[in-house]
Amino acid sequence: MKVPIKEVKPNPHNPRVIKGDKFLKLVKSIKDFPQMLELRPIVVDNEMIVLGGNMRLKACIEAGLKEVPILIADELTEEQKAEFIIKDNVGYGEWDWDVLANEWDAQLLDEWGLDVPNFLEEEDIYTSKIEAPIYEPSNLKPLISELVNDTKTRELIKEIEASTLEDSEKEFLKLAAQRHLVFNYSKIADYYSHSSKETQKLFEKSALVIIDFDKAIENGFVELTKNITKQFLEDYE
């Protein structure tokens, strides 16, 4: 049922609060999607004291609502009321961040109040939103061995091969061990700058370098190419 919002009493013993930006997002979500309140009404006891939805009530008041949908739980004992208050605020389960990252809009999730991690800073989580680093390639072409640190990967593979696991398990784990490779992208940019067109193309397809031909690694690659070309012509002459 819907009742005047002034009839609903906040629970002074509610242990969960929402503050600051998250509270403002809750207020906005109620304004943007008020129908959700009807699908998830505020739960009160027979004295109209909130058992579930204390912060939603506060947000409804802030949003300027005059009425709110409620559900009266009038058959609970005092012990059950206390238990309900805690259990209603317990977050069971956990988010599948891979699904959220690939199938949901991160900006909308943030607006809806979900604490979305910065996927760019999370290891092994990929996103299409990439901030290209600024590389300044040197005049020296680094060694291949300088491009990647594979120490941990080789140690894991050695341990996997020495194990008594089935061959299929070993192959899977050896593939998984590649995730511990640590690439030195500044060295990779140097190597890329001194490489053949074929090598460069495969580096790009492997996402080892990010090429925006308007910027060309923030102009570092273009400038280096000019210098190398100039030096080559001078030597040739």
Could you characterize what this model shows?
The chain is α+β, with helices and mostly antiparallel strands and 237 residues long. The protein has 2 domains: 2-88, Alpha-Beta Complex (Conserved hypothetical protein from pyrococcus furiosus pfu- 392566-001, ParB domain); 144-236, no CATH class. Helix content is 46%, strand content 8%. The protein has 11 helices and 6 strands. It has helices spanning 20-32, 35-39, 54-63, 78-88, 97-103, 106-111, 151-161, 167-176, 185-193, 197-205, 220-236; strands at 2-4, 42-44, 50-52, 67-72, 148-149, 182-183. A 4-stranded mixed sheet has the order 1-4-2-3. It has a two-stranded antiparallel ribbon with strand order 5-6. Strand 2 and strand 3 (50-52) form a beta hairpin. Helix 1 (20-32) packs across helix 3 (54-63).
Keywords:
single chain, about 240 residues, alpha+beta, Conserved hypothetical protein from pyrococcus furiosus pfu- 392566-001, ParB domain, 2 domains, four-stranded mixed sheet, two-stranded antiparallel sheet, 11 helices, 6 strands, about 45% helix
Task: Draw up the topology in text.
Layout: E1 2-4, H1 20-32, H2 35-39, E2 42-44, E3 50-52, H3 54-63, E4 67-72, H4 78-88, H5 97-103, H6 106-111, E5 148-149, H7 151-161, H8 167-176, E6 182-183, H9 185-193, H10 197-205, H11 220-236
Parallel strand pairs: 2-4
Antiparallel strand pairs: 1-4, 2-3, 5-6
Helix pairs in contact: 1-3
